Each structure stands twice: as C-alpha cells, then as structure tokens.
Amino acid sequence: MTFPNPIQQSLRIALVSFLVGCALLAGWQKLSAQTIASHDSNAPVNYAADRIELQERQDRVVLSGNVDITQADLRLRAARTTVAYTREGSLKIQRIDATGGVLVTRGNESAHGDVAIYDFNRRIITMVGNVRLQKGGDTLNGGRMVIDLNSGVSSVDGSAAGSTSASGRVSGSFAAPKQN
Predict the structure, then answer these.
(1) Which residues is 46 bridged to in the sheet?
(2) Cα distance between residue 61 and residue 59, in whole Å
(3) Whole-model pTM above 0.85?
(4) DSSP the chain
(5) For 165-178, b where at least 16 C-beta lie within 10 A, e where not — what string?
(6) 87, 119, 144, 165: least surrounded by Cβ within 10 Å?
C-alpha cells in the first residue's frame, strides 16, 4: 500500500476543504439532469490523448493534450486529466481530475466548466468554475455543479472561486413552447 506524499495530501485536503466551504457558504438550487445522471458508471473507460504519462508509484496516469475519455455514452473532453487508480486485484479507476476547458456530454445534454472531478466510488461528478449546463434549448449557469449519479439530481451553486458570475447567483433560460 502506498500513501500520498505530504504535498499531494495537502493539495487534496485543500481541495476538499474548498469544496466543503463552497457548499456551506452558498445556497443550492436543484436541477434534474436526468440525461447525464442516468449514466452507467460501471461501464469500461476508454481514453485518447496526445500524451500519456504513467506514474506507477503514485497509482495514477496523466493524460494531456486533447484528452477524450468515454464511458458508455458519457464523454469527457479536457486539456489535461489525472486518473487515479488502485491495484486491488486488477486496476480500478477511483477518480478522474480534469482541467482546461472541460466538456462533459451525454445525449443532448452538455456541461462545461474549468475543472471537473469524477469520483467513481461515490458516483459523483463535480464541476467548478464558469459552469454551464445545456439541455436542448435550456441553459443553466453557475459557479459549481454536482451531478449525483446515484440519485439523478444535480445541484448548482452560483458562487465559486474563479467564477465569472459577478452576482454569485444561478442564472439561465428555459425554452418556451412554440405557439401556432
């Protein structure tokens, strides 16, 4: 068993503290994001990138340059990702951290953000920074979004560090039915 080095552990603690702080300080707004949330997180994960670096001692893989990761019909694209895994029996993905123009799509739904974390054990995708969810003609903008693949509910928060939302509020638009 390997333990993270003190720098990695400090970074993880800081990230978790930041995310918990955002959740406690900001109001939540619920949105049903059924397309992404009904995803099969047990399907195999495929990847492609311009470069791959295996960091075996740290149990992780770094993908960079036009990263394209798919799992069933869920697709994640980003400039860079770090994939953490365990070797219990066989290699199993624990988490994907993506940065740089992150785009997650499934069907007619897409979510954009600066950073995304896909926690395979908890079945939760978290996106932070300039988050935009689009489904058909509807849009939703915020600072942070959590997609719970277990419950099928997505929570969007208006404020997050690095967000360009000056008001700290969730905003968006709904498509109206066309009248003859």
Answers:
(1) 70
(2) 7
(3) no
(4) -----HHHHHHHHHHHHHHHHHHHHS--EEE--HHHHT--TTS-EEEE-SEEEEEGGGTEEEEEEEEEEEETTEEEEEEEEEEEEE-SSS-EEEEEEEEEEEEEEETTEEEEEEEEEEETTTTEEEEEEEEEEEETTEEEEEEEEEEETTTTEEEEES--TT---TT---EEE-PPPPP-
(5) beeeebeeeeeeee
(6) 87
Distances in Å between the alpha carbon of 45 and those of 7, 33, 147? 28, 21, 18
pLDDT for 169 beyond 90:
no
Which class does domain 27-173 fall in?
A: mainly beta
> What confidence score (pLDDT) does residue 36 get?
56
Domain ranges of the chain: 27-173
On the 0-12 / 13-18 / 19+ scale of CB atoms within 10 A, 95 is middle
**HSE value, Cβ hemisphere, 13 Å, CA-based, for 63:** 21
Amino acid (1-letter code) at residue 152: G
Task: Select from 18, 61, 25 the least CA-distant residue to 157.
Answer: 25
